[in-house]
Amino acid sequence: MRFDLLSGKPLRIIAGVILLFNGFFPALWIVFTSLKTESELRVTPIHYLPTDPTLANYVRAFTNQPLLLYLFNSLFIAVCSTALTLFVATLAAYALARLRLRFRGLILSVIIAVSTFPLVTLLVPLFQMMRSLGLLNSYLALILPYTVLSVPVCTLVLVSFFDGIPRDLESAAMVDGCTRIGALFKIVVPLSAPGVFTAGILAFVNAWDEFLLALSLNSSPTFRTLPVGITLYQGEFTFPWPTISAALVVGIVPVAILIMIFQERVVSGLTTGGIKG
Amino acid sequence: MKYGKTVLLALAGAVSMLPLQNASAETLHVFMHSYDMNLWQAVFDKYEASHKGIDIKVTVGGNTSEQQAQYLNTQMSAKDSTLDIINLDVVRPAQFAAAKWIMPLNDDLDGGTKYLDRYLSAYSKANVIDGEVAALPSRADAMMLFYRKDLLKKYDIDPPKTWSELSADAKKIQKQEGGDLQGLSFQGAAIEGAVCTFLLPYWSTGHTLVDKDGKLTFDMDAAVDSLKLWKGFVDDGVAPKNVAEIATDDTRQDFQRGAAIFAVEWPYAWNHFQNDADTAVKDKVGIVALPAVEGGKSATCLGGWQWGVSAYSNHKKDAVELTKYLASREVSKYIAIHGSLLPTFEDLYTDADVTKAVPWFADLLPVVQSAHARPVTPRYNEVSNAIRTTVNAVLAGQTSPEQGASQMQARLQRILR
Amino acid sequence: MSQAVADRQETEERQTVGGRFARLMDMGDGALAFWLLLPTAVLLLAIIVYPVCRLIYTSFLSLSLTSGLPASFAGLQNYRDMFADPVFWSSFWNTVIITVVTVPGALVVGMALALIANIPFRQRWAFRLALLVPWALPLAFCGLIFAWFFQSDYGIVNDVLRRLGLPTVIWFNSYAWATVAICLTTIWKTSSFMALIILAGLQTIPRSLYEAAEIDGAGRVRQFFEITLPLLRPAIAVALIFRTITALQTFDIPYTMTRGGPGTSTVTLAMYIRQNTVDFLDLGYGSALAVAMFALSMIVTVFYLRMIRRGA
Asked: What are the angstrom distances between the C-alpha of C24 and each of A185, A206, B291, C13?
């Protein structure tokens, strides 16, 4: 089942440490930075660990800018677009997985093609559309594009999960008087909960990470998302690294917890979405 | 919906963190820069005290002119009604008026455009766009040469009249004083100030960038010479190696801690040099007109800020009233005395109260009156970007002056077609 | 579902008090599929198809929101301007360089990480998390974090160089070093996605193949090149397509690290599109630039698809 390039325990341990260091060091370093004072930060040679840890930067991160509002904006937009994505993708995936469709192959290729679509190119028309609809600086301006960003991949993930659910179960439910749509939501969706969940996490992370559209369509402080808020944050005269680090930690933690708890699902979602696509 | 309530609660939570708006009183939102806040707060407080029911809230967006312009771009494109009054760099009324982002003020002013006759002519000119008053001047500005009186005296040097004199003087003092003393600090970061940096020697040769009709009159030799001049300061060690990262306030801070002999700066710095707690140069600062290129005339860059009323404001009437006040002689005098900001009224330069606080204003009027304006065009953002990124690239050693100048020309040609 | 069951169910459904869903049951698969796929179709039409048409249309207009002038037809002027614009070309080449360097770079690093993660450690979760954290980190955060790493005075990169007695570098003061920093950051950020995909591929390779090779006396390195790599091809191909398309859209990391400086030397195509659209409000020109990026993406996708087909 597995293939090991490396033999010998010491070599493996070294390799393992490299992997862990590569994955965690940047985040860890930002945590250290966030605990240092501005003056400790300006010492050479630099201190690796904070000598006199302080939480003042976290207080400043929340008081110098409406970080909590940015956090809320990010969460709200990500949650809404995830919900919308799941709804739309579930319906589409059911049709593709269960119904006899003449153009199934064509529809699937269109969805795969869209999943590699460079959304950046649509900045101008989206800016124009949102502007004429009065949606610049609004939650909807981001929720809709983010949904489109995630629907293709989520549909593919869900199709593969729906394929794995025996059709008999549905038929049985329908014999019991369930409609087909009823069977979808009462039988298929619950049974493929891991798949729905996986798709949901992908959609959430997509929305949480997006920067260009958020920066371009929602730059008003009231509607900034976390990445935009933190990037545009500038102190009076200098780039306040400790405060920015604290804000970054605040921004990293929610998603880190999410993927820590659900890591297996995330991995399976990434790979089904990726490999099947 | 089950989560509806939670979402609502969360929303309420988020909204409550925004600055509370008092519904009964009229709140006017003023957009401006984030520095000199104490000075302006005092002005606003005074207005609030005499106008019951008016509440002034300040919105800041970025510390530099181009950051603010970017912020306003999205706000105004979104037809945002939460801003009533906007503080505008002198280069912007043309664009904002063309895009109809600020309301024309003719009907609200006695005499229409004649209302502007009270101000220095450069500013009445800058604020009338297509026969309409677009904004009212807040303060004047012109770049000056700041120098260390004490050091020049020590080495018996007169303030330089040309850039090459300045270079020689700086080298001489740097050599004697040793250490990390900078000869000249100027703005090389890709900010609006770098546009002036480029234009100072360019104008000094007698060339203009655009003609009266806004057509490009780019002179390649003058542009190359200008870029070479600044790059030369870096190469000769007169200007610091990291000048490509230096913005307006970095120059102010470097000079303030005594780290530079000469500085190309705006007058606001004077107040900091004299009155800040950490100043190392109190009473050691001299100010003269900027040097000229060899055989050229001294030229400075016209700056200054205006107050415009947002076309999307829901409180236009009150906003216009406040704008008139902010552009009044009274405020101009107050900020001249307390912030060393240049008056927009001619007589204030020789006003006794003003000259008591800022003696060198007395000699400044001719400098301001002869200052050159940057091109007036609705596409100024692009003009500015083409110039300042080139200056930055040349100073970082990324592009040669010749290459930089020809790239700049190519970009300007497209914009100012 | 057998036809008999369906018929019976439909009959029953009609007998119960018919809700709206009941009526859905009268439809054939085609009609039901239509309704199920409608939301997706509407979204794609509204957010992709219509904007693409509008984008192409706008690219032929002279439309600048700052000028106050109404849009006017400009023919190919925007495209002519684009080809004559030095910043377009430098942003184009920057995008190409970043793609050409970071996609293979991330593949190689990702492969190494995947092989390590495939070692049967006891704490598998920790290693998997070490791959997931960089993947889930927003690109903009990543840019900010690495901008701090590469900071010239107090950044850890220069600190390590100093401790090793090597000359330090002012990373963001020159095009070459800034590009190196941007590429390293991008490779770090994207290699974990590659690793996750490759890891999944690794785990599908039957062990028996290796055992057979072992018997034939093939060493580990030969096993890697003769078994692992060929069998990973499909997984790698898919990962490469995704990665290349996203690399062409590179925006977040250079924007947060250099803002395009020094000068405009590290501006990417996506940054230049945004600048013209949002900062300059020159929508006509911004559209022409976006069409260029669109064309570039299409060429790359078609190229990859043909390569995969030939390989299959």
From this structure: 15, 33, 83, 10
Q: How many residues does this entry show for chain A?
A: 277
| Count of the separate structural domains present in chain C | 2
Residue type, B232: G
> In terms of pLDDT, which residue wins out, A266 or C82?
C82
State which residues form the domain around C141.
85-311
Determine how many CB atoms are found less than 10 A away from the CB of residue A88: 25
In this structure, the answer to whether residues C54 and C167 fall within a common structural domain is no
Residue C45 and residue C115 in one domain: no
Per-residue pLDDT at A1: 38
Name the token pair of C156: 């850890």
CB-based burial of residue B203 (10 Å sphere; 0-12 exposed, 13-18 middle, 19+ buried)? buried
Residues C121 and C24 grouped into a single domain: no
Spatial CA neighbour of B105 closest among B85, B119, B82, B91: B85
Tell me the average confidence (pLDDT) per consecutive run of 10 residues in chain B, 417 residues long.
48 47 72 84 93 88 78 84 92 91 92 91 90 94 94 94 95 91 93 93 93 89 96 94 86 91 93 89 93 92 94 94 95 94 94 92 88 89 93 92 94 86
Which residue of C118, C138, C273 is in closest CB contact with A2? Answer: C118
- Helix, strand, coil fractions of chain C, as percent rounded to 5: 75, 0, 25
User: According to CATH, what is the number of the domain B144-300+379-415?
Assistant: 3.40.190.10
Kindly state whether residue C63 falls inside one of the protein's structural domains: no
As a whole number, mean pLDDT of residues A92-108 equals 85
Residue A275, pLDDT > 50, answer: no
Task: Assign a CATH topology to domain B6-141+303-369.
Answer: D-Maltodextrin-Binding Protein; domain 2 (3.40.190)
The helix or strand, by DSSP H or E, that contains position B285, with its residue range, turns out to be strand B285-288
Give me the pLDDT at residue C26, please. 53
Are C217 and C180 found together in one domain? yes
Helix, strand or coil, per DSSP, at residue B59? strand
Closest Cα in chain C, distance from residue A126 (Å): 7
Instruction: Please report the pLDDT score of residue C141 as a whole number.
Output: 94
Fold classification of A65-240+252-276 is MetI-like fold (1.10.3720)
Tokens in use for C102? 């970071």
CB-CB under 8 Å, C278 with B396: no
Question: Do C38 and C165 share a domain, yes or no?
Answer: no
pLDDT of residue A239: 65
Q: Cα–Cα–Cα angle for C102, C112, A18, nearest 5°?
A: 105
- Alpha-carbon span A41 to A48, nearest angstrom: 10
Closest-CA residue of A relative to C294 is A121
C64 within some domain: no
A8 vs C44, which has greater pLDDT? C44
C125 and C29 within one domain? no
Pairing of strands B54-60, B26-32: parallel
The stretches of B31-103 forming alpha helices (DSSP H) are 37-50, 65-77, 93-98
Determine the distance in angstroms separating the CA of B62 from the nearest CA of chain A, rounded to an integer: 8
| Chain A residues close to B252, C-beta within 8 Å | none
Chain B touched by A87 (CB under 8 Å): no
Report pLDDT for A234: 65
CATH 3.40.190.10 domain span(s) along chain B: 6-141+303-369, 144-300+379-415
pTM for the whole thing? 0.85
Are A134 and B77 a contacting pair at CB < 8 A? no
Residue A24 has which token pair? 């965690």
How open is the CA angle A138-A143-A146, to the nearest 5 degrees? 135
Q: What are the structural domain ranges in chain A?
A: 1-54, 65-240+252-276
B254/C134 Cα distance (integer angstroms)? 39
- The domain spanning residue C286 has which CATH number? 1.10.3720.10
**C72 contact residues in B (CB cutoff 8 A):** none
> Is the ipTM, as predicted for this complex, more than 0.85?
yes
Which residues on chain C are in Cβ contact (under 8 Å) with A2?
118, 120, 202-203, 207
